[in-house]
Design goal:
Length: 64
Amino acid sequence: MWRRAECEEAVRKLSAAMPTIGSLRDVSLEQLAQNRSLLPETLYRRCRHVVSENQRVQKVAELF
């Protein structure tokens, strides 16, 4: 539950630079890296994991 809260906090912080995002699924790894300064290190690492997992799953889904 606290991890989800951290991700929601990160989305709020990132939306200052990317107002169209609604969740981390709307963020690419490149965008995350470009806006790293908006996040404390813990939130950045949490987001990097979520975003990379989302991209991995999307790549697999494209194979089918």
